[in-house]
Design brief:
Helix 3 (71-83) crosses helix 10 (209-228) and helix 4 (99-108) packs parallel to helix 6 (132-149). The protein has 2 domains: 39-228, Rossmann fold (3-Layer(aba) Sandwich); 249-361, Sandwich (Jelly Rolls). It has helices spanning 5-26, 39-44, 71-83, 99-108, 126-129, 132-149, 166-179, 186-191, 197-200, 209-228, and strands at 49-55, 87-93, 117-121, 154-159, 182-185, 249-251, 256-258, 261-263, 266-269, 275-281, 285-291, 297-302, 305-311, 318-325, 332-339, 354-361. It contains 10 helices and 16 strands. The longest helix has 22 residues, at 5-26. The chain is of the alpha+beta class. The radius of gyration is 25 Å and the shape is globular. This is GDSL-like Lipase/Acylhydrolase. Residues 53-214 form the SGNH hydrolase-type esterase domain. It comes from Peribacillus simplex. InterPro entries: SGNH_hydro (IPR013830), SGNH_hydro_sf (IPR036514).
Length: 362
């Protein structure tokens, strides 16, 4: 007996649909599976959450005894264990970094995948390089840049447990309130934890695993509280600081050079008195250079005035983007970097080197 082809076709179509439905049910949830809803809606509907950390050594979890004891890994585990919500992180972090460096590195990234949640972890290093007005301007510029790249993202600002400069902490709090970001101030949490600073840190600055547990717990609790309060995600209002709308650009062509030689992507010199000079237009200046175990000091002059001395020593080689100064008058300027022949390294027996790639300005 022959099979009726016409009756077989609908049966095959139904079977195919059922098979596809079964496969789709078995496909695991993917990161960033729905970009149309915010992080709190994703949490409530059980979707994975994509987050980004922009920060310094505490941002990257330095001080934790094991990788799974950093604050963000403990937060991931907490979300997964308690709520079955996967978190997937991306990181723009560097030990010793400032908000200026975070802004430049974020601006240089070629790919910007969707993010639901962004953490900012700065302050402790910034106070070494800039005053509170420069910090406020740069931190706000970073928040605005991140929000423009990720319009639906919620913003969490972390006031580091080690930050002793109240005016910098106040600036973070003020900006958080203005943008509707969630500020997690770890200073009172550490103080009221019942543990000593020594028990919670590796070196009285960087938290250890126990210290980072306090970070993860505090962030998690604030996140849940935001859901209860039906909080709206941070917005992009008018600027709080009049000059925070700047964008950073890089200038790699020098005007004058003496004693420096091109080497490995940098202009390099170990000779005292070597000079490299650039011209630029802008009110802010930074420099792209290599910090390394044989790094030396370099004096910075702008328009004939000595501004600062930069230390390029670091225990391991890392390209860095250092803030130099802000508030320069409008118009053209000349910056000169001059090798001192000195180093901050205590045990360096070799001649110290200075390696400069370019300048950064607004």
């Amino acid at each position: 007996m022959k099979t009726n082809a016409k009756s077989f076709i609908p049966f095959a179509a139904i079977a195919t649909i059922l098979l596809i439905s079964y496969i789709l049910q078995k496909v695991p949830k993917t990161y960033g599976s729905d970009d149309s809803i915010n992080v709190y809606q994703k949490f409530q509907s059980g979707q994975p959450i994509q987050y980004l950390v922009i920060g310094d050594s505490i941002g990257r979890g330095s001080g934790a005894e094991k990788p799974n004891l950093t604050w963000f890994k403990q937060l991931e585990n907490k979300m997964n264990d308690a709520n079955d919500i996967p978190l997937h992180g991306d990181y723009v972090v560097q030990s010793g970094s400032t908000a200026f460096e975070g802004l430049f590195k974020l601006s240089q990234r070629r790919k910007h995948d969707h993010k639901d949640l962004i953490f900012f972890v700065f302050g402790e290093n910034d106070r070494k390089y800039m005053n509170v007005d420069d910090f406020t301007m740069t931190y706000e510029a970073l928040m605005r840049k991140a929000k423009r790249l990720h319009p639906n993202a919620e913003l969490f600002t972390i006031t580091e447990s080690s930050l002793k400069y109240e005016e910098f902490a106040s600036a973070i709090g003020l900006l958080s309130k203005h943008y509707g970001a969630t500020n997690v101030d770890m200073r009172p949490i550490f103080k009221n934890s019942g543990y000593t600073e020594k028990q919670l840190t590796k070196d009285l600055v960087h938290p250890n695993g126990l210290g980072y547990k306090l970070y993860a717990d505090a962030i998690y609790e604030r996140f849940l509280d935001n859901i209860k309060q039906e909080k709206a995600v941070a917005g992009l209002p008018t600027k709080l600081h009049a000059r925070s709308g700047f964008e950073l650009s890089e200038i790699d062509h020098y005007e004058k050079m003496s004693g420096f030689r091109p080497m490995g992507g940098y202009f390099t010199s170990s000779e005292k008195g070597s000079v490299i000079q650039y011209t630029f237009k802008g009110s802010m200046l930074g420099v792209k250079l290599l910090r390394s175990p044989d790094g030396g000091e370099v004096n910075v002059w702008i328009d004939g005035n000595e501004i600062t001395t930069l230390n390029t020593w670091w225990p391991f080689a890392r390209e860095r983007y250092l803030f130099v100064t802000n508030g320069l008058r409008p118009g053209s300027h000349t910056v000169r970097f001059e090798v001192t022949g000195r180093t901050k390294a205590m045990d360096l027996t070799d001649i110290p080197y200075v390696r400069i790639a370019s300048i950064i300005t607004d």
